[in-house]
């Protein structure tokens, strides 16, 4: 399964909105340098080891959800009282989750289009070599 930095970024931004955290607060919470947190949250290039070390410092977040989009946002969600993780009302979170899913779909659509464009460009290059 491929890892997509933009999707990881979108999921972490969603988590930050739920927990009402900014980059600096997340940096302090995870004991990770603010610049590194900024790279991760913005979907810039970074080492997967840095991401894993960062996620280990977030005991309530499901790292499989952050990386692959699998499962729930929080560890143990579905067990007793998952509401303890939430600070706002659920309707707002559902709306925000729908927006996040839309963003993720747009990212995936853009990537598919980019792959198709790359394939067309390569085919054009191949054809121009034979002219």
Note down, in words, how this protein is organized.
By secondary structure, this protein is mainly alpha-helical. The protein has helices spanning 5-19, 23-30, 34-42, 48-56, 63-68, 90-129. The chain starts with a helix and ends with a helix. 16% of the residues are buried.
Structure, briefly:
The protein is an all-alpha fold. The chain has helices at residues 5-19, 23-30, 34-42, 48-56, 63-68, 90-129.
Q: Number of helical runs? A: 6
**Secondary-structure element series:** HHHHHH
Helix content: 55-70%
Main pleated sheet: none
What overall geometry do the principal axes of the alpha carbons give?
elongated
Provide the structure class: mainly alpha
Report the β-strand fraction as a percent range: under 5%
Write down how many β-strands occur, each being a DSSP E stretch of 2 or more residues: 0
| N-to-C CA distance | 39 Å
Oligomer: single chain
Mean pLDDT: 80
Segments where pLDDT lies below 50 for 5+ residues? 78-85
Radius of gyration: 18 Å
Write the topology of this structure.
Blueprint: H1 5-19, H2 23-30, H3 34-42, H4 48-56, H5 63-68, H6 90-129
Looking at this protein, list some descriptive labels.
single chain; 131 residues; mainly alpha; elongated
């Amino acid at each position: 399964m491929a890892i997509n930095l933009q999707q990881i970024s979108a999921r972490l931004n969603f988590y930050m909105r739920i927990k009402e955290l900014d980059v600096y607060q997340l940096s302090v919470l995870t004991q990770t340098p603010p610049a590194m947190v900024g790279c991760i949250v913005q979907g810039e290039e970074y080492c997967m080891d840095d991401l894993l070390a960062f996620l280990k410092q977030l005991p309530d977040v499901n790292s499989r959800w952050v990386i692959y989009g699998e499962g729930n946002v929080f560890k143990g969600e579905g067990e007793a009282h998952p509401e303890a993780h939430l600070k706002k009302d659920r309707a707002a979170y559902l709306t925000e989750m729908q927006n996040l899913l839309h963003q993720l779909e747009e990212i995936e659509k853009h990537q598919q289009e980019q792959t198709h464009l790359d394939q067309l460009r390569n085919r054009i290059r191949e054809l121009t070599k034979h002219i």
